[in-house]
């Protein structure tokens, strides 16, 4: 068996790089579900009824498990594997009342993604997860899970267990300056956090992430605590974004918004967030919010053009900017050399709640909060019109899947006169 045990299993470390650890986690979940079956949660039962009541979805959900390559049908850690769509739904039925525990080997931050990990990369999975009816129901499932993660019951993982607690010995090694960096109170239960979501949307203490050149409107700052993935120039309105290389297509990214034409042949910068990071968004420029809204999209679709991806959507970072759930925040910069630009946060898998905290007509200062991902983060783009000439600063890195975080509010680009 040639399953790699140390692949870059998920950009941002949302799932472990050690496949054996992930499969052990899945084995424990399967044993729990098989030995202690639970009554169907209504929203998961509705998902089951949708799949079984529609001939196309029923066919695709059966085929996607049959099409998993043979080498991935066996658990490399030993023990059971996800058998079929019904088994997958039973696992999801248990997941939506659980919060992720810490593990130094790898956070299972995308548990539903982990359940569909091999099946979603098949041709049947590709077709199924593009279906708008399926995505509408998946949104309801994720919203129910979000209610649990926002409840006090989810705070049970915010403990000091040395291995699995978010304030335990292992977690403190991974986040050694947590208390100094984030607003919290170690003397209170759960450090003062009221839920898992409250912990994951934690705020930096004042002064921890100063805004680069606050008085210089030519300096554009990093809108998320994120790692550079790609910069593209002369981006067309239309493109075959689903092919290998995943070139950007502005019309699809911007959902044919009336502003789209202004950005034809413009510049797109994309970066991705990591599981242990800060998940709020800050304005990259000072300016006025012209428009801000969320676009419903896919949750588990990945491109087939990059070949079978057992760690999907690892290789689909460009593709998901066109199809995944995302927000558009158009900002008219105070600097006329920039003019109208767009910040676009993109949800990925479970991380698809884009919470906009600004309103149309509001003036924001560079570095001011404009929204957040709930339960983590995914990827985001900065989109500029073609007349804007920029000198990007990747802080000594080459953009790609192996890059590391650049601090939020740091300089990411400077306008060239």
Overview of the molecule:
- With 417 residues, the chain is α+β, with helices and mostly antiparallel strands.
- 25% of the residues lie in helices and 18% in strands.
- It is built from 12 helices and 13 strands.
- The protein has helices spanning 19-35, 42-53, 55-66, 85-95, 111-115, 123-128, 132-149, 169-174, 178-181, 196-200, 250-253, 320-323, and strands at 219-221, 226-235, 266-273, 280-282, 287-295, 326-333, 340-346, 353-356, 363-364, 369-374, 379-384, 390-392, 411-415.
- It has a 7-stranded antiparallel β-sheet with strand order 2-3-11-7-6-5-9. The chain has a 3-stranded antiparallel β-sheet with strand order 1-13-12, with no helix packed on it.
- Strand 6 (326-333) and strand 7 form a beta hairpin.
- Helix 2 (42-53) crosses helix 3 (55-66) and helix 2 runs antiparallel to helix 4 (85-95).
- The protein is globular and about 65 Å long.
- Mean pLDDT is 86; it is low at 1-17.
């Amino acid at each position: 068996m040639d399953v790699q045990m140390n692949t870059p299993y998920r950009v941002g470390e949302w799932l472990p790089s050690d496949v054996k650890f992930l499969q052990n986690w899945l084995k424990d979940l399967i044993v729990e579900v098989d030995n202690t079956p639970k009554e169907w949660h209504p929203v998961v039962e509705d998902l089951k009824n949708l799949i079984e009541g529609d001939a196309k979805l029923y066919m695709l959900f059966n085929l996607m498990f049959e099409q998993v390559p043979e080498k991935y049908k066996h658990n490399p850690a030993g023990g059971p594997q996800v058998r079929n769509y019904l088994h997958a739904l039973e696992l999801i039925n248990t997941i939506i009342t659980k919060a992720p525990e810490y593990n130094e080997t790898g956070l299972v931050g995308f548990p539903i993604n982990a359940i569909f990990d091999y099946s979603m990369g098949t041709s049947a999975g590709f077709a199924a997860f593009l279906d708008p009816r399926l995505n509408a129901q998946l949104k309801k499932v994720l919203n129910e899970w979000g209610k649990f993660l926002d409840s006090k019951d989810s705070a049970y993982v915010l403990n000091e267990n040395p291995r699995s607690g978010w304030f335990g010995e292992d977690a403190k090694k991974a986040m050694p300056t947590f208390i100094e960096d984030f607003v919290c109170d170690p003397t209170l239960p759960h450090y003062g956090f009221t839920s898992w979501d409250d912990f994951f949307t934690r705020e930096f203490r004042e002064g921890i992430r100063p805004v680069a050149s606050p008085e210089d409107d030519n300096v554009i700052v990093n809108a998320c605590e994120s790692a550079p993935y790609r910069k593209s120039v002369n981006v067309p309105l239309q493109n075959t974004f689903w092919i290998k290389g995943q070139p950007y297509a502005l019309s699809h990214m911007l959902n044919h918004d009336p502003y789209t034409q202004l950005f034809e042949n413009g510049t797109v910068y994309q970066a991705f967030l990591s599981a242990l990071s800060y998940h709020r968004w800050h304005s990259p420029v000072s300016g006025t919010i012209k428009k801000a809204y969320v676009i419903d999209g896919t949750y588990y679709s990945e491109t087939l053009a990059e070949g079978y991806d057992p760690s999907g959507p690892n290789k689909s970072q460009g593709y998901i900017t066109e199809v995944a759930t995302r927000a558009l925040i158009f900002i008219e910069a105070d600097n006329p050399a920039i003019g109208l630009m767009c910040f676009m946060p993109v949800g990925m898998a479970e991380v698809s709640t884009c919470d906009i905290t600004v309103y149309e007509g509001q003036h924001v200062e560079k570095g001011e909060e404009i929204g957040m991902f709930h339960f983590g983060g995914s990827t985001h783009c900065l989109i500029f019109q073609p007349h804007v000439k920029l000198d990007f600063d990747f802080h000594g890195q080459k953009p790609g899947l192996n890059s590391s975080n650049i601090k939020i509010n740091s300089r990411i680009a400077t306008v060239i006169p």
